[in-house]
Design brief:
By secondary structure, the chain is of the alpha/beta class. Helices cover about 35% and strands about 20% of the residues. The longest helix has 16 residues. Bound molecules: D-xylitol-5-phosphate and zinc ion.
């Protein structure tokens, strides 16, 4: 299993997103949290900023859409240059059609699950997907406390991915830090989003390296 770290720009300086990207050269991805003030009670950045970032940064963009009506809006993020687009299943009307549209636009496709959303109903969709995001906080804000109650779902998701035989990455997002990343890796996650643990650190790139090492160590057990 390849460990990947996706620092979340939500905890970076919004007036200097290019600088934030350059501060984490060792990151596999840059996680971009798109919030619409409807699906979640917060408003962040949208299409024009994603478009500008895609032209500027060297890391591929991992867009996490916390928006209503992703069926309508998500493909534009792929067309804007996001290498991976993840939408919430709670908001999607036709997740299979949407995943296919994202693929047709050249992006990887992911679905995200809020903490109260079970993974089992989506097992049959896995062959259509590249990524399954198990949220480990209620989406909407950075810097929240990791919810240990999500760990059994990560384990179950890993079992379902293995049983499907599909090449689906299992991402965790929310409260991922040096204290919690080992538990996520041990439960089966392989892509780790971290906002405050990376951009709140004095040396963000060293934080990425540290998180990667802790995840590797937990997988070896
Ligand atoms: C929360 C976002 C996360 C957030 C994580 O809704 O999806 O990506 O940036 O921030 P931390 O790592 O600080 O919990
Ligand atoms: Zn996110």
């Amino acid at each position: 299993m390849t460990i990947q770290i996706s620092p979340s720009l939500l905890s970076a300086d919004f007036a200097d997103l290019g600088g934030a990207a350059r501060s984490v050269p060792g990151a596999d991805w840059l996680h971009v949290d798109v919030m619409d003030n409807h699906f979640v009670p917060n408003l962040t950045i949208g299409l024009p900023v994603v478009e500008a970032l895609a032209k500027t940064v060297t890391q591929p963009l991992d867009c996490h859409l916390m928006i209503d009506d992703p069926d309508r809006w998500a493909p534009a993020y792929a067309e804007a240059g996001a290498a991976s687009v993840t939408f919430h299943v709670e908001a999607a009307r036709a997740p299979v059609r949407l995943a296919r549209e994202l693929h047709a636009a050249g992006a990887r496709a992911g679905i995200a699950l809020r903490p109260a959303t079970p993974v089992e109903p989506y097992a049959e969709l896995l062959p259509e997907l590249d990524l399954l995001l198990v949220m480990t906080v209620e989406p909407g804000f950075g810097g929240q406390q990791f919810l240990d109650l999500c760990l059994p779902k990560i384990r179950r998701a890993r079992e379902l991915v293995a049983a499907s035989g599909a090449q689906v990455w299992l991402q965790v997002d929310g409260g991922v830090s040096s204290e919690t990343i080992g538990r996520c890796a041990e439960a089966g996650a392989d892509v780790f989003v971290a906002g405050s643990a990376v951009f709140g650190a004095e040396d963000p790139d060293a934080a990425v390296t540290g998180l990667r090492e802790l995840a590797h160590a937990a997988c070896e057990h």
